Amino acid sequence: MRQIFRTAMLVAALGGSLVTTAHGQERVRIGVLNDQSGVFSTYQGVGSVIAAQMAVEDYGGKAAGKPVDVITADHQNKTDVGVGIARRWYDTESIDAIFDLPNSAIALAVAAMSEQKNKVFIGSGAGTALLTGEKCTPNTVHWTYDTYAYGRGLGKAVVAQGGKKWFFLTADYAFGHDLEKQAMEGVKASGGEVLGAVRHPLGTADYASFLLQAQASGADIVGVANAGDDTITSIKQAAEFGLTQKQRLVGLILGMNGIPALGLKAAQGAQIMNPFYWDLNDGTRAFAKRFAERHPQKNYPNDMQAGVYASVLHYLKAVDKVGGAVDGKAVVAAMKAMPTDDPLFGKGTIRADGRKIHPLYLLEVKKPDESTSKWDLLKVVATIPGDQAFRPESEGNCPLVKK
Description:
It is built from 15 helices and 16 strands. By secondary structure, the chain is of the alpha/beta class. It folds into 2 domains: about 1-145 and about 280-360, Rossmann fold (3-Layer(aba) Sandwich), CATH 3.40.50.2300; about 150-275 and about 360-390, Rossmann fold (3-Layer(aba) Sandwich). The strands form 4 sheets. The protein has a 6-stranded mixed β-sheet, with helices on both faces. Strands 8-7-9-10 form a 4-stranded parallel β-sheet, with helices on both faces. It is globular, with a radius of gyration of 20 Å. Belongs to the leucine-binding protein family.
């Protein structure tokens, strides 16, 4: 099985020239498409590929009696590159399903293409709630999180703790816009006030001008509506700038992998939303140990990588139920019809709009003296049931949902 993975990944690196349509009909082929060299590479990257490989191995290496291949590619956070890879995978390399896909603009384009070509798209790294809203399709499942759950959840929680006046530092692309919108609505619905916002390009190196605007706003809270290395860089520079002396930073999507770069001393007490943490139970701890043994940097898995593992498992169950992977719409329908159950997210469901439902955890960064190891970073403060964490199905305007 490991040889299959090595061969498949080599083929992907060579542009797929060795793969024929006939070959694809004899196998189930899934692609992990994400950022492997840019600002999101630590948060998905090779870790998501490892997670997919582990899921296939744990499932037994076959679905519907056919061997399962995992290939991967780097979309470089460029929409044209990502869309081009997806089209090539679907048209000439017989890929049946695409997983992960951080970068909401690329995710939305690939979701539409997957419907057009009757393939399957399962977003784990993708954030935009449009995937289960106005842009939902019968070929899409949104697995791990979305901007509604994170933005609304943290917005409400921080206002409840006294953070009434907000200013947003937002990444200037689809994901950032959506995250800002959801957080703003959560703040306002809870009685808070939004004083303004400023937007920055992806991969910004110098945040001084943006931080000056945040500082001058008079806000209590600066909501950091970006992701990946942009979050770490902006929060670090805000601390160096002295902004945190009078204002509180809230990283709306500050993930576990970013905390070591910030350091527990700087990050302690910060709260984040997540549907997965490696130290939740025996199942998550066992997976994390196996994952770290295979990861080049020995990193522990984050929620998005865990989402790839769990969604691949459920996808393969659906392929078995349908009897093949050719009809993407039928496979997604089977995924929705079956309850989900895996060692990382436990039991759950997939709604008609494609939204995977599971609990979210409000997690708090530990103090330095509370941590016993490099990845012992967080503690559970509260659990939010899935039916409360995600946007109500009736409010998303998904055309698949019957009124």
